[in-house]
Amino acid sequence: MVHVVFAIPFAMENTLRFARAAASLPGVRLSVVSQDQPEKFPADFRAQIVDFELVRDALVADQLAAGVQTLAARQGPVERLLGVLEPLQEPMAAVRERLRIRGMDAPTARNFRDKAHMKEVFRAHDLPCARHELCANVEQARAFASRVGFPLVGKPPAGAGSKATARCDDLPSLLAFLQQTRPAPGREVLLEEFVLGREFSFDTATLHGQHVFHNVCCYYPTPLEVMENPWIQWAVVLPQQIDGPEFADIHRVGPRALAALGMWTGMSHMEWFRRSNGSIAIGEVAARPPGAQFMTLMSHVTGVDLYRAFAELMVFETWTPLQRRAAAGCAYLRGQGATGKPGAVVRALHGVDAVQRELGDLVVEARLPVLGKPPNSSYEGDGFVIVRHPDTRVVTQAVQHVVANVRVELA
Ligand SMILES: Nc1ncnc2c1ncn2[C@@H]1O[C@H](COP(=O)(O)OP(=O)(O)O)[C@@H](O)[C@H]1O
Ligand SMILES: [Mg+2]
Q: What superfamily does domain 197-410 belong to in CATH?
């Protein structure tokens, strides 16, 4: 039996889906470290695990390490430490090093987490990415702006979910961004050349340094545009075929970028841009499986449960080749009309029945926003509709139909 610890700081449905897959692997005994009380976890999940350790903050390496050690003392040596949240990747790597658990080490985790450092690695390997500078003060930021020109993007060096990320079109908007973020030595902000173009993901699996799987998602539009425009509902499409010339560059560059950052065994979520002149630039890479339903979408494309494939990859270090059988897409339903207003809740859903009738069997999964609930601030919104069809064009039209016709009214 293999003793695996899953770090689940918060009992969130998405993380639980991964943990359930790991717990159900033959020969695996799964323990959990969490800062949520065990009662927050569904009873059927608790029945799947062998042990549970509560810590105050599971994102802090010392506390995570103590939790893992306690589980090791009770259940035997820990052979894998897994977790899918972005801010867990560095603390987990530190704990693995300290307790000699096989898996990604701390310097590699930092390559994926520190966006400025990541771009330096790319530059050193001649991999295309936006020009950047870590700025500790206004003078440095102005100097970068006069070198690179506008527009620029400002962001925290280790952010997530497009939070605190802003497009600066001119000097006043850059100064306003700096006024808000107040950079200082040790609290730098990352400025980047704004890559004008379309955005995509490149989601991958690597086994013992070999690139064994990739997927492309096309974003409609970019996450930053969605965040900046509260009326936009985001959509993504995973084409049935991704071997065509439009993706040749990322197939060449993506695996090289992962090798440069030190990916050995695991899944990753890369974001990349195609400029109107045809050139590409890598945005960032996360050393974890993608979020935002992408694992579910890839499962619909391949007909294989990607959550289980990830668990097998991480625990047994095996990967079964996958085929693309269909295209899939997701429309993210997002509350409109009162975003950011204190006390706003989802008041009504419009257009759902008609869209359901029109799309029929194309819809393979959906979660509708719950009436009376406060809206989510992220670009993933408050619900989603997933469609699947062998023809990529049918899927693209279907998600566009959903975002154009379903309206989530807030009040
Ligand atoms: N250099 C850039 N040029 C153009 N758009 C960018 C750039 N950097 C970030 N963005 C936009 O902002 C979003 C969030 O930035 P990202 O670096 O991916 O941070 P996060 O960790 O928040 O996802 C991206 O998905 C993209 O839409
Ligand atoms: Mg991102």
A: ATP-grasp fold, B domain (3.30.470.20)
Give burial (CB, 10 Å; 0-12/13-18/19+) of 266. Answer: buried
Q: Measured in angstroms, how far is the CA atom of residue 364 from the centroid of ligand 2?
A: 26
Question: Which pTM was predicted?
Answer: 0.96
What fold characterizes domain 131-193?
Dna Ligase; domain 1 (3.30.1490)
pLDDT (average), residues 228-235: 93
Ligand 1 pocket: which of 284, 377, 378 to mutate (most atoms within 8 A of CB):
284
pLDDT given for residue 339 in this prediction: 64
Q: Quick one: which ligand is closest to 226's CA?
A: 1
Tell me the DSSP string of 36-95: S-GGGS-HHHHHH-SEEEE-S-TTSHHHHHHHHHHHHHHH----EEE---GGGHHHHHHH
Query: Could you tell me if the CB of 192 is within 6 A of ligand 1?
Result: yes
Class of domain 2-102: alpha beta
pLDDT digits (tens, 9 = 90+) for 74-124: 999 999 999 999 999 999 999 999 999 999 999 999 999 999 999 999 999
Q: Which atom of ligand 1 is nearest to the CA of 222?
A: 27
Pocket test for ligand 1, best of 118, 129, 165, 202 (most atoms within 8 A of CB): 165
